[in-house]
Amino acid sequence: MGYEYDDQNIFAKILRKEIPNDTVAENDHALAFRDISPKAPSHVLIIPKGKYVSFDDFAANASPEEITDFMRLCAEVTRLEGVALDSGNGFRAITNAGSDGVQEVPHFHVHIMGGRNMGPMLMLRD
């Protein structure tokens, strides 16, 4: 996959308002919206507004302001969804990168999932 950004990915289209979304929260550098195919009672995606392909791309190349706003929006989403540890029973934060990580959209994003026990981290197979 590499770090070459595809301007036609679905999250880029959401950021350009070409595709609607169910916004949960937003700040200057990030957008949070409900997953269209939720895997938990609470399943929110957080994406940076910048053109980053994966977690490592974002961590290495985003500005301090982008990183701070992104992480703060993640925390805000956990509170809004009632899954933060100070008000709920917890959550899982997941990001996938590249083909081995089974990344489906080539735009960095974090899944915040909660509202029930999320089960084991991985289902290992041979």
From TrEMBL:
Record PROSITE patterns: HIT_1, HIT_2
Pfam family, one: HIT
Domain HIT, chain residue ranges per copy: 10-123
A GO MF term: catalytic activity
Residue ranges annotated as motif Histidine triad motif: 107-111
Positions annotated as active site in the UniProt record: 109
CDD domains, per database record: PKCI_related (cd01276)
Protein name: Histidine triad nucleotide-binding protein
Species name: Paracoccus tegillarcae
Source taxonomy: Bacteria, Pseudomonadati, Pseudomonadota, Alphaproteobacteria, Rhodobacterales
